[in-house]
Amino acid sequence: MSTPSSETLTPDALVRLVAGHCLRYPDSDLYGAFPALRAALAGAPAEPARLIGAFLDHAEATEPLRMCAEYTSTFDTRNRRCLYLTWWSDGDTRRRGLSLVRIKRTYRDHGLEFTGEELPDFLPVALEFAARRPEAGTALLQEHRAGLELLRLALSAADTPYTRLLEAVCATLPGPSPETRAEAKALARNGPPQELVGAGTPLEPFGPGIDRPFDAPLDLPWPVSAMPAAPERTSA
Question: Which letter, b or e, does each residue of 91-121 get, where b requires 16 or more Cβ atoms within 10 Å of its Cβ?
């Protein structure tokens, strides 16, 4: 496995990709990836790298079965610590199904075909997309900024090392993070200030789209299987 160069991934993209990997279930793949993850952090901004490094220190020092139990007890909907972005915006409603299809369409419209077993709004998947397609990915994360910040605050209240990963992710987004749940809920009602969204292309509304040409695979420090490149559309 090779570490990515600065020409391959931006510093913020490295943060998103490494944090997303750490937010997956802590199976043997995570423990085997520790050296590559730490090497990738060498190209990340200092503070997010410190936060993720502290999480890796904790994970390395924790017995794997205990780490798995910590993960499953940390992330659940009963305690409002959910890793699925549309759960925060739509809850368990019919509207959520449309939101999931829209996210999957966004991946495809930017040259990536989602074929993983998880739902397309699973935060590690969205972070991989935001690393591979920074402009569209930042817009997606900004659209779900309120949920991300509420999750960060919920993890902080639970005093879990996973808080550091959300803090690192939120540090890659424009503007300061809300300091209280009230501020985060206000963000949910009003959306991020216009100046924080950026001048990039907005996400397309739910509806028909087309497959676009895809880029060559990124030089990642570990194999990526969640979003292989989408096939090019051929004429009938």
Answer: eeeeebeebbebbbbbbbbbbbebeeeebbb
- How far, in Å, CA of 206 to CA of 194, rounded? 21
pTM for the full model? 0.75
Other Cβ atoms less than 10 A from the Cβ of 225: the count is 8
- CB-CB contact of 140 with 203 (8 Å): yes
Q: Give the Cβ contact number of residue 236 at 10 Å.
A: 3
Taking a C-beta distance cutoff of 8 angstroms, is the pair 89, 147 a contact? yes
Amino acid identity for residue 67 in this structure: M
- The C-alpha atoms of residue 159 and residue 201 are separated, in whole angstroms, by 37
What is residue 60's predicted lDDT score, i.e. its pLDDT?
95
CA distances from 40 to 62, 151, 158 (A): 22, 25, 28
In whole angstroms, give the CA distance from residue 103 to residue 205.
10
Task: Report pLDDT digits (tens) over 18-31.
Answer: 999 999 999 998 88
Residue type, 26: P
Residues 104, 110, 116, 122, CA torsion sign: negative
Cα–Cα distance list, 208 to 99, 188, 205 (Å): 14, 27, 9
How far apart are the C-alpha atoms of 191 and 64, rounded to whole Å? 39
Radius of gyration of the chain (CA): 17
**2 secondary structure, DSSP code:** -
